[in-house]
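Hey, I was hoping to borrow your eyes for a little while. There's a protein on my desk that I can't quite get my head around. The fold is given in discrete form, as structure tokens running alongside the sequence. I'd be grateful if you could look everything over and explain what you see. Here's the protein in full, and shout if anything looks odd to you:
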Amino acid sequence: MKSKDVALVVFALLNVVLASEFGALPASAAVIRIPGVGAGDWARYDVAFEFSTNDPSPPVTPPPREIADMEYYQLAVLSVVGSNVTFQLTVRFENGTEMSNAMWANVDTGYPMGPPYLFIAANLSAGDALFSSLFSPTINATLLRTYAGAQREVNLLRLEQNTTGPYGYSATGRISVYWDRASGIVDEMVYEINYTKVPEGYETYAFVHLLMRETDIWSLTYVNAELAAYPRCLNLRSNGKWITVFVDLPESCNVRKVDVSSIMLNGSVHAEKTAVLLDLDGDRRLELMVKFDRQAVIDLISKTLRYARESGTATLTVTGELKDGSVFRGNDTITVIYRMPRTRAITE
């Protein structure tokens, strides 16, 4: 597969719904649209996929096998001239290899890339059109969300469409896109589409989740935490209730000062229960015990395992805030077992 094909496959999938929705709302001509990023800015993203079908000739092409081995996506701004942002999109794989492709986008017009848009203009707000074209979608809301460890003001575009296509297919697509308001760079995309062909009982489902995990656009210094996650070997078909993580903070931090409502696993799963324990490892510091819903964690891990495997590993990242505003982060890797039922058909 060519590097360009792999690098753009996420955005080709997302294009299906976005392209059909654009043109629904009139633009606001009074808004001045200029980039909020600069040369040297970068952001890295975790990407999760899910694809299933029982259709012998599905209406969308399954993602290439290489996607299962992606470590992250990275956007790096090369230059900014007027409304044009030239950037490099890099896919890094778990084996250390990379594929890159240079592209450009105009934050005033949205061209030439078209949807989905990785950059929009800076300082737009709810009610503003994304672009200056006659027909452009309008930002649904401006709100606060946490990305790359910091609370940011973001703009949200949410679209949904139900269509009836050729050859008897019906499709329902939903997409939510969040952009950082100050810089205009994409923070998160959540996309899913479901194709059905009722007479034959065919169903095809595709899901893509793009989530920023690191950036240099807003600086953040993490407090390094040591984690120990249990069970150490997780069966993805198990019915247990919890994933338990023990968090050990540096001597300068008091675990009693952790804002338990801020604790998240892999930026997606909120902590369900927390408790400050005794000094379990003998370092004269208390550890924090955190419990996450096991099924929610399994669902998250399963979306990254695009193809059935007997076993593999998963990195669990836990973040949280202390009451003084500092943010801690730690990682631990567990083994996962993924055995499919013998009766279930797998389409690749």
User: Anything to note?
Assistant: The chain has two domains: 3-215, 222-337. The CA atoms of residues 88 and 328 lie 30 Å apart. The longest helix spans residues 3-21. The longest strand covers residues 150-164.
